[in-house]
Amino acid sequence: MPFHSSYPSTSSASASFSAVSDSELTRKISTLQEIFLEQKLKIDELDDPLSIFDSYHAQLSQLLNFYTSDPNTTKFITSILVPVLDSATQTFSHDPRYRNDPRYLKLWLSYAKYCRDAEDIFIYLSQEGIAQELATFYEEYALLLCEKNLKQA
Length: 153
Description:
Largest sheet: none
Strand content: under 5%
Number of strands: 0
Mean pLDDT: 87
Distance between the termini: 30 Å
Number of helices: 7
């Protein structure tokens, strides 16, 4: 899938990291990353491996929402978040347990925000039969198409 080419590179994370002046934030993110990476090493042992991605995404999103007024911090958090979303969406794309899991769709929808054309995500999900039994898929897709039409008008 060619979606990931439009998100911030992880190499920019270290440059952005030095621009983040909030030591408490830096400590929180480091701790979150350590926990996530430890859990990811044991992913094959988990009954619900999606849960580690879902939890990490929720925690990073919460930080991102809290620090939206600081562009450097937002860029830094995004440089961590997007590769995690990419990994989560790719890791479980052929796992039937998550085909219609609302948490998995939430990760895809978050990922779509960082893609050049979010409609490509919806097309892919539809072609792969992912989230086709979830009303949220259709609601978000309709919203996206309405927004696109308004921009073109």
